[in-house]
Every structure is written in C-alpha cells, then in structure tokens.
Amino acid sequence: MNVSVGIDALSFYTPAYFLDLGLLAEARHVDHQKYLAGLGQERMAVAPPDEDIVTMGASAARPLLDMTDPDCIDWVLFATETGVDQSKAAAMFVHGLLGLGPRCRVVEIKQACYSGTAALRMAADWARRHPGRRALIIASDIARYELCSPGEPTQGAGAVAMLVGANPGILALDDEAGLYAEDVLDFWRPNYRETALVDGQYSTRVYLSALEQTWRHYVALTGRKWTDFCRYCFHLPFTRIAEKGLVRLARMDGGPNPSSDEIRRLVGETLTYNRVTGNTYAASLYEGLTSLLDTAEEDLSGKRIALFSYGSGCTAEFFSGTVMGGYRQRLRGAVHRAMLDSRAALEYQQYEDIMNLPFPVDGGEHVFAQYRTGPYRLAGISQHKRVYETL
Ligand code: CAA
Predict the structure, then answer these.
(1) Cβ pair 184, 209 in contact under 8 A
(2) What residue ranges line ligand 1, CB within 6 angstroms?
(3) Helices (DSSP H) in 229-299: which residue ranges?
(4) Which residues are catalytic?
(5) Looking at CB atoms within 10 Å, which of 1, 48, 65, 319 has the fewest?
(6) 1 pLDDT exceeds 80?
(7) Exposed e or buried b for every residue in 209-238, given b needs 16+ CB within 10 A?
(8) Average pLDDT value for residue range 127-139
(9) Are 246 and 233 in contact (CB under 8 A)?
C-alpha cells in the first residue's frame, strides 16, 4: 500500500529583535543597495543573550502540540549547525521544556544547513511504516560571521518546527530525490570558534553546481522539467540566490532565462520571511516554505512544488512534494506575521554590544538579563549547566 507521508504541521519562530541593514551599511561604509538589491536582504534577526537555539526551537515547536496528540510523538529530531553542547542533544532540552513523554527517541543531527532535510527524509521513511505516529522535527540556528566580514549582512536567527507523519495535512513528499555529496571546504566552523569561516564566492559556486548535480539526478529519476513546478523553495543563505538558482535550472533545461515576472511568480513568496530575518541555516529552506504557504494568495492545493536543500561541506538534495487540499487550515500565517511585525529595531551599537558579549565559560553562577523572548528563555549558566526558564 502506498501511504502518503510528509509535513503535517509547520511553525516558525524568530527572535524579537532585528537590525535594519541600512544601519549596517552605514557603519560599514557600503552602499545600502548592495544589501537590498545585490543580496536581497533588508533586515537581520538578532538573538538577545537569553535566547539560543533551544529556546527558539522550543518556541517554534510549542504551538504544534495543540495540533496533535503529544503522546503520538515518537521522535524529536533537532537539526542545527550551532549546537550548544558536544554531547547532550539540543533536542533533549526541548523535550524537557515541552514536557514530552519518556517513550521517545531524542537526537540532534548535523550536516550544515542540510540537516533539517536529512531529518525530514528519515522521519518520512519511518512514518510510512508507522501511520498514526508523528516525528517532531526542529531546525534552529543562529547564523554568525565575524563583524566586518562579507558574510555579516547575511546573518540571522530563527527556527522552524514540523510534525511529520502519514496522511499529512500540508505537504505530501514525492519519493524521488536528486542527491549530491562532495567533500569540500566552502563554509565551516571549527569547535573552538563562535563564528563561521567561509570562502564566500566559492561557497556560492559550490551551491549552484550542487544544484545542477541534484537536478540532473532528479530529472533522471522523474523525467520532470523545470516548468513542472508551481513554485520553487531554495535554501536561502541570502534571498537573491533563489534568482540565480532558477536561472541555472532554466539554462540546464535549454530554455531562455526566466523573465523577472516569472522569477517573482516562482520564488517571490518564498523570500518574504528570509528577507527580514537573514539566514537561518538549517531552518532556512523550511522558513521559505512557511513563507510561501503563509503568503501565497493563489490556492496551492494539489500543486507540486520543488525544494532544494544545500548544506556546505557539502550535501545537497533536490526534492518535491504536493500541497494538500485544506492545507490553509493548518497554517499559522497570522501568528507569524504578527511576530515579525512586533519585533524591536536595534540601534547599531546595541547590535555590536550583543555580538561582542562574551559567553561565560568559567563554571561560575551567571544570571542573564531578561530581554523579550518567546515562551522560553535561557535564564543563566550555573556550574556549566544551562538553566532554562518557561515564562
Ligand atoms: N548596488 C546593487 N548591487 C550591488 C552593489 C550596489 N551598490 N554592490 C554590489 N552589488 C551586487 C554584486 O554585483 C553582487 O551581485 P551578483 O552576484 O549578481 O554579481 C552582489 O551585490 C553581492 O556582491 P559581492 O559578490 O561583491 O558580495 P561579497 O563578495 O561582499 O559577499 C557573499 C557576498 C560572498 C555571498 C557574502 O555575503 C558571504 O560570504 N556570505 C556568507 C556565505 C554564503 O552565504 N554563501 C552562500 C552559499 S553557502 C550556503 O548556502 C550555506 C550557508 O547557508 C552559509
């Protein structure tokens, strides 16, 4: 029996603070248009000191518990490349904060920005054999580069939580997927560093060549053309890359370059959230999917959409899915828009102060000042233990 599997519910969270990139452009003596038009970014989300991947992930996941029986959740899979502990999974903290039951597999998973997709595909394969059960997937990251580096304007922070299972309410995944893996060093973060290292121009070239490779594989498996999809969701390190990706696919199919109207139609709605949060690494592709489903005026029921996942290092996957009838009733668009609209704008100096704040590593007692957060916050560090608080 062919059971459909995929995304049953979707929730997005981003911190309550942002920096307008106009202020960054001024501070860096760069033409603001480079960020707005060249990279396609307007604002970057900034996580305050009492917010981390765990609080963001738990805040994204909490509303999903009202959309399923929590006792049906057999997995908590936490995808991140900005982990807070070398041993304990961030998923374990979230499992505790959400009050989930003990009969559960709770794991963190890593391969740069690709890990959310690895979690999704593993959960979907499992779900086929366990109809009625659910996996909770959380992708959560804080994208940080050195101050004054070329990557700085692409920073961001956010989390997406998804319930994955059989007979999903939002997106049924196709089985076929185009894959590509190659051992390269385009972007990485050694354990001893707070900020990522990146060979920026090279990373963009590798991203686009991995797109080509996965597309070839996907086409060989499915025979589909680039015009067979009603929308495209790309991994978004910065939103302008979606345009570059579409142009690459059109050329590979032997067609003319897509017009700017066509580009806007195929990817425009997927970019709305990322443009004002910046890169959310593992969450970025799924933030784009959330943005599409929340903001598209057209009813996408029954339509096939394409997804491209890229994780530096590198692993990539081109896959697709069909939007389910009635999907709009499962969305949280009004909540997401209200969250984005109510964020507080930081002054440039406040941003720099947050970025320069050292994280305590001395094993002492540290109580963190309270900023605006979601329902969870990192209250402090006590003898190397992270202390979380539910508000
Ligand atoms: N007005 C309008 N546009 C302008 C402009 C101006 N005044 N000045 C420059 N631009 C345009 C440029 O022409 C360029 O556009 P094109 O690519 O179409 O030519 C664009 O703005 C960016 O300019 P540069 O290429 O000169 O920018 P840069 O070298 O300073 O930085 C970057 C760009 C390399 C992407 C950098 O932001 C970076 O290192 N980012 C982090 C790494 C990254 O995001 N890599 C993407 C692939 S890796 C990945 O996907 C994994 C991940 O999440 C990190």
Answers:
(1) no
(2) 31, 33-34, 37-39, 113, 150-151, 154, 186-187, 198, 200-201, 203-204, 207, 235, 237-238, 279, 281, 310, 312
(3) 240-252, 260-277, 284-295
(4) 81, 113, 235
(5) 1
(6) no
(7) bbbbbbbebbbeebebebeebbbbbbbbbb
(8) 96
(9) no
Could you say which DSSP state residue 174 is in? P
CA distance linking residue 342 with residue 339, whole number of Å: 5
pLDDT tens for 75-106 read 999 999 999 999 999 999 999 999 999 999 99
pTM here is 0.98
Token digits of residue 155: 């920073």
For residue 38, the CA-to-ligand 1 centroid distance in Å is 7
For the chain, the average pLDDT equals: 97
| Ligand 1 centroid to residue 40 C-alpha, Å | 9
Q: Which of 235, 59, 57, 70 is nearest to 138 (CA)?
A: 57
Confidence at 255, pLDDT banded by 50, 70, 90: confident
CATH architecture of 5-390: 3-Layer(aba) Sandwich (3.40)
Cα 340 vs. chain centroid, distance in angstroms? 16
DSSP state of 36: I
| Model confidence at 389: pLDDT above 90 | yes
